[in-house]
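JOB MANIFEST
job_type = single_chain_structure
chain_count = 1
residues = 494
[input]
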Amino acid sequence: MIRFATHRPVRRVVRRRPAHQAAAVAMAVCVVLGFLGAGPVDAQVLDPTFFIESVRVEGLERASAELIIAESLLEPGFEYIESELQQAAFRVQRLPFVLDATFVIERGSERGRYGLVIHVEEIKRWFFGEDGVFTLFTNSIAFDNPIADDWTIASNPLAGIRLFAGRYNVFFASLSGGSRGAQVGYTRYNLFDRRIVFNLGLTAGGCCATQVFALGLDPTFSSWQNQEDSRQAQASLGVPLSQRTSLSLRLTRTYSEAGERRNLLGLDGPRGTLEYLDLIQDTAELSLLYDSTDDPVFPSRGLTFVAGFDYERLESDLVVPESQLFNRSRAIELPPGLGPSLPPFKSQQWRVSGTLTQHWPITRRHTLTLSARLAAGQADVENLPVVESRECPALDLSCRPNTLRLVEAADLDVFESQFIIQVSSELWSRELTRKVGDFRLENRLEFGYDRTEPALDLAENPLYRKSITTSLVFRNAWGLFRFSIQILDLGEGF
């Protein structure tokens, strides 16, 4: 939000051009800005211009004023149009330790010069959070249990601390409930005095985190549940190109010592599972981001567009546990010549993707959000084990309800899509929100479609994902708390 505390007349800067050139330029600018969500009427050539001779930051308790000014991408001694100041305010608002940011223009030392005051409300040094989700499945899912469930409850409480050192260094540490474990991280702002942001994070967890990989990495649509120690290291670099655009590079390595891999879909009863050892996932992502939103958690207007390229690699040793060879209800039949210890499983994929998200304020309290993501690429898998279920006659004691086949090598074309419609509603008045915090109701409808070609004769390929989610979300200076009820349908067709 920008508030102007000056009574001086606004000076407009308009360059003179021939009439036909001015009309062509204005039309081109309006078309481009209209597509990017900036609005066709308030084009930048018509924005008021302010010469900022000084920048002052107020309200800080822990962060440095230099950090805030660096992240605003503003410098004293330059002219800025109103929309640039607004985007600078949005940039400060999106910092993870900022709850609210207000820009005020004051009179300067002489006519035509102004001082900028940035008032910042910080999040508390100690922060907390919760992301609780009750999920009702329309078909039985074996997400974190060998036996399929019709519903599940996930709770992810969080408590952490953020420490500032010097002008641009931020450290944080947190403990999470459930399976997330402990996290420590470091962020360096204004790296090399180039407004570059560097992040480094380490995570150590225990039982029983569950992952579901993209079909290009595991076409069987299985869950991988860690049952021992796990670790993750992540490093990222963000380079601002303008007030709205930035370039990001992210590298991640995740290691899981041991766990179980099971098909998510299939029979409603017990199904066969495999054990895995030394699961390693490597990810590299390069993306170009355009962001004009006014808030990182509850955006009411603006557009986000992410164009990216990513590469992922997955490898692990898989074993058929002894209990799965003889357990009557979950026994797995191996193909001839294949022992319980399977050949090392490896897969890799690369994708190009684009995600477009637009937010519109439909009333003073309601925001409509539309989002679409498309991704395409290629993948290859080696020694992919496929566990398939079959019906056994009641009197046939030699029949095993699960069979295993091995896809020794396959090259795949990958396609992914996701579409979201969401309406966010403020539940409290503006006065109560300022005093207590944001309290919102979010209703989301989501549809996804993923497939690989060839489909490898897998029942869950292509995969359709449909969900309806209602969430109550509360945010204040102490943290973010979200409680959701979700209806989720996974499988084929509508």
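[summary]
The chain has a mean pLDDT of 87.
Residues 4 and 105 are 5 Å apart (CA to CA).
exit_status = 0
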